[in-house]
Amino acid sequence: MALPSINPTTTDAWKALQNHFEKVKEIEIKDLFSKNKDRANNFTINWEDFYVDFSKNRITEETFKLLLDLVDQVKLKEAIASYYSGDSINKTENRAVLHTALRGKETDTVLVDGKNVMPEIFKVKTKIEAFTNEIVNGNKKGYTNKPFTDIVNIGIGGSDLGPAMVVDSLQFYKNHLTTHFVSNVDGDHVNEVLKKLDPETTLFVIVSKTFTTQETLSNATTIRQWFLEHATQNDVAKHFVAVSTNIEKVKDFGIDENNIFPMWNWVGGRFSLWSAVGLTISLAVGFDNFNKLLKGANAMDIHFKNEEFSNNIPVVLALISVWYNNFFKAESEAVIAYSQYLNQFATYLQQGIMESNGKSIDRNGNRVNYETGTLIWGEPGTNSQHAFFQLIHQGTKLIPADFIGFAQSLHGNKDHNDKLISNYIAQTEALLNGKTKEEVLEELKEKNLSEAEINELLPFKVFEGNKPTNTIFIKKLTPESLGKLIAMYEHKIFVQGIIWNIYSYDQFGVELGKQLASTILKDIKFNTSVNHDASTQNILEYFKNFR
Ligand code: F6P
């Protein structure tokens, strides 16, 4: 079944939302709280260890109802059925989109072209488990018979960001192996990593779905050369493994067939950490924890598939985001995690969200006449409070924000955790309420300032408030809860793609830069020059003078 292709702006719900927006665009969230004592409870979803409060938003009961009408009218239910059942919903690449199957149960049946993919998925999972155990236990050894101490993940985009973010986020659960990530084609990146490595005890995991990506192949080649300065060609098999769909290319690169962990075309790069792309995660935190990550994601998959939309976390978050993006014309969204472990989370989400929904052609092949993908950015709290929060509080832009927090700290330092969480809670309260002129006046009077001084300072100290936030409060950061959190955003991406009537699972926009880079590389290497604009030509000449 193909995805429905409905221009959302033609639906009754959209038109009703547009009218409704004109009436409510000036509403104050704090007034909504005063009018409805049940607001916080009505706009909170309690699910397993997740507490999702979306009441601090510029939405009324009516807004919420109309947004729910919108997903019905763009046929989200049918789209979810297609998504989970292995239909080729990535139509422009003629592929199914089945990261959900990767975290499914062995007894599930998921058909791609009439064939159940679950047995293959579990075959690879068994291979990941056996390999992980051998490396972690030290049974599998390097070419000088020493156990491995270091793992290097060589990949970029989805073959790097997911594993890197998860390994960092789950560092509390890590074993003795040290993990490194090489992604950038910048040779200084790989050289800085190589400086830290002992070839005798390092395992290299080359991750590339296509095995054609310039960055990954360049880094892998450089690393193999470095390795061969210390060891022999025969030793490569003990130290290099690969994850890819392109088995022939991997073999051509010289990787032993037994060292290949396959993946499939129906796994998109930015949704692939659940496949063998997550091998480095499994090596870093052990297969059991990797499996728990998958189980958490599976729980969110089931919630998303079965829960009614009004109580469905990814659906509700997607709708709120559409409300700001398309009606308030908010351009960006911040994701602020109050956990240093989630340091790389926003960076990871940037690929997932912006590569998926950064599209301007709809599913009918027409240019959209409405906004699509939002800009995503963020840094952990409390650091970000001392960096960019000023702009969220008092700037001119509307920046809806997700505040992610974990009630229990992993190291159990209650004093620090109480301080962290008090900041977490205080910020959403401050963004909601702001500080009125009267409150500022009161405060300044207590400081014994003159009237003139007070009047001068007053306007600068007022906070408008009314800044929207979602609080996503989770009991504890565990592999399961992280799996749920990532899957929550994956499904939010899906819902928004359905509403915006775009294809979320291709990324043709990345191609043009790649093509031009290869032309320019030829110009640099062979001192040619092919039809560049004057600016590009000058920049090229400038570089040639210094290289
Ligand atoms: O940036 C484009 C992209 O195709 C991403 O979607 C993907 O995650 C990345 O390149 C890496 O691709 P591969 O895993 O094939 O090396």
TrEMBL record:
GO terms for biological process: gluconeogenesis; glucose 6-phosphate metabolic process; glycolytic process. GO terms for molecular function: carbohydrate derivative binding; glucose-6-phosphate isomerase activity; monosaccharide binding. It catalyses: alpha-D-glucose 6-phosphate = beta-D-fructose 6-phosphate. The gene is pgi. One of its GO terms (cellular component) is cytosol. The active site is at residues 355, 386, 514. Catalyzes the reversible isomerization of glucose-6-phosphate to fructose-6-phosphate. Pathway: Carbohydrate biosynthesis; gluconeogenesis; Carbohydrate degradation; glycolysis; D-glyceraldehyde 3-phosphate and glycerone phosphate from D-glucose: step 2/4. It is an enzyme of class 5 (isomerase). It is found in: Cytoplasm. Keywords: Cytoplasm, Gluconeogenesis, Glycolysis, Isomerase. This is Glucose-6-phosphate isomerase. It comes from Lacinutrix venerupis. Its main location: cytoplasm. Its EC number is 5.3.1.9. It comes from the Bacteria. Belongs to the GPI family. It holds the Pfam family PGI. CDD domains: SIS_PGI_1, SIS_PGI_2. The keyword Cytoplasm applies. InterPro entries: G6P_Isomerase, G6P_Isomerase_C, Phosphoglucose_isomerase_CS, SIS_dom_sf, SIS_PGI_1, SIS_PGI_2.
